[in-house]
């Protein structure tokens, strides 16, 4: 089975009318890189770097990080690889970075923690720039949990100072979705993290089972925010990816494209189904499905409305 998958040429992600939608992989360590390539990943849309830091007493040094980044980048010559700076907070405590907080989801996490411990961010950017220089990959770097334009400016300036050419932000907080256009005048790209964006939009802890029914990226409130970012991307001519779990749901993937996402990143196992579904529909259908879903009153209504548009278009 594995051998057949390797031999079969995988066509790039595209809609039925030829609109390209690169389909990328979410990776949590370099170990999954080869399998992602086998499963047709056209690059990496989210490389989570937490694996290097978790369970460490001190931040890993530049050489250790460079080696790990190089190992992953080598699997993607000539391909785009989006690396996310360390995303830690009081929910994933690191002795050298975090402090105890009563409400970790709303605390000093993601980029906020990195800007408070700038040397950790500087070391990570140094390691990444050095690893990029040793490989053929096209490295994009992005910051997690950005909520303001000022944070965006600080991060992008630091990335450029370290020689990284393409610097962007994750949109996972409603505030950054709502000011996506000013943000994209400073950042080269945005990547929407629908897991956290849903958590913060719905005010529902993504890890709490008792509110799991609210943690649904189909909710029109979430879709409207995604649409804001999509429009800002179009207005500023900037790429807008989605790298949250929502991108792995084939019908929702189509809706996200209709809302303006220009690439989708997901667990590699989901790539084939999403590729198949996108290939069945035109950009016009994607936009109509997105419009219908956006106008619904709840998540179930949004899904039903998108299903109906797709069914009628077939
Ligand atoms: C997200 O929040 O959607 C995301 C991709 O980041 P993580 O799941 O690592 O928080
Ligand atoms: Mg997140």
From TrEMBL:
Cofactor: Mg(2+)
Domain PEP-utilising enzyme C-terminal: 11-278
Principal EC category: transferase
Claim: Cytoplasm is one of the keywords in the record: yes
Entry keyword annotation includes Kinase: yes
E.C. number(s) listed in UniProt: 2.7.3.9
Family as reported in the entry's similarity comment: Belongs to the PEP-utilizing enzyme family.
Protein function: General (non sugar-specific) component of the phosphoenolpyruvate-dependent sugar phosphotransferase system (sugar PTS). This major carbohydrate active-transport system catalyzes the phosphorylation of incoming sugar substrates concomitantly with their translocation across the cell membrane. Enzyme I transfers the phosphoryl group from phosphoenolpyruvate (PEP) to the phosphoryl carrier protein (HPr).
Protein name: Phosphoenolpyruvate-protein phosphotransferase
Gene (UniProt): ptsP
Residues of the full protein shown: 239 to 552 of 554
